[in-house]
Amino acid sequence: MKNLASSSQDSNSLRLLKTYFTSYDLERMELYGKGVVDYHLIVDILPQMVKMIFTGEINIKGLSVQQKAILVALGLQYKSVDELAEISLTSQLPPMPASQILGHFKRAIIRINEEVKCLETKKAEAELDLPKSKTDLQIEEGDEGAIDAVLDEEAAKIKEEQAKEKQELVKALQQYKIKGNDTDWSQELSTRKSVANISIGRERVDEKKSENEDVPVKRKGGKTPEGKKKKKKHG
User: Fold this and answer.
1) Could you list the residue range(s) of the whole structural domain that residue 19 is in?
2) Which of 58, 68, 185, 205 is the most exposed place for a label (fewest CB within 10 A)?
3) pLDDT tens track for 152-189
4) 115 close to 60: Cβ distance less than 8 angstroms
């Protein structure tokens, strides 16, 4: 019985919201809660919304004393934020700066937006006859076998594809590999005055040097140093 009464009250609250406000009005409230628009854009909505809250036509939970006082002052007493900053909202608290008042007001609007969305969600669930909890959902296994096995197989395929893509990427990036080792770079950095003049070409020089070590250098006449005849010494 309690659930039925609550459901009936929620339906009535949503019906009244749709009666008093357009979709654009509720969208403006949501945009203000997200910080997209200024509070001046929703002041025309406040009187009727605050009336619904304090007459019980819509139940907004979690509003603090300060938030309720600010809603009444802005929505029903038509005071400005600057005027509220000069007076005490409650007998136990001193006046608050305008920025703090707007902070409390924004949190109150966010709570209202959350309740409106909750009412709309409940209505949609009732119309679609959705299950009340996840335990009501039953997942049937297909011809492919257990769901876990299928998921594991798909995960293995994805990992294999990712490994292939990684290998291809590494291969493609080899052309951009920086030459030289730590020793080469340390030597260049210690000897060069400007970073712009650094050139790591020692690797290529060393390679050419090693290639030329075994190749004999030919001189004039086609003779190599090894083939040069030694002159006989005449005593």
Assistant:
1) 2-124
2) 205
3) 777 777 888 888 888 888 887 777 666 667 777 777 77
4) yes
Q: Which runs of consecutive H residues, i.e. helices, occur in the chain?
A: 2-20, 23-33, 46-54, 65-75, 81-84, 98-128, 147-173, 182-191, 202-213
What count of residues does the chain have? 235
d(CA 177, CA 204): 14
Tokens standing for residue 158: 């994805």
Is 192 among the domain residues? Answer: no
Examine residue 32 and state whether it is found in any structural domain, yes or no: yes
pTM (predicted TM-score): 0.53
- Assess contact for 68 and 145: CB atoms under 8 A: no
Instruction: Decide if 111 is inside a domain.
Output: yes
Residue 221 gets the label, from left (phi > 0), alpha (psi -120 to 50) or beta, of left
Residue 139 domain-assigned (yes or no) = no
Q: State which of 5-14, 125-134, 183-192 shows the largest mean pLDDT.
A: 5-14
Collapsing DSSP states into helix, strand and coil, what is residue 136?
helix
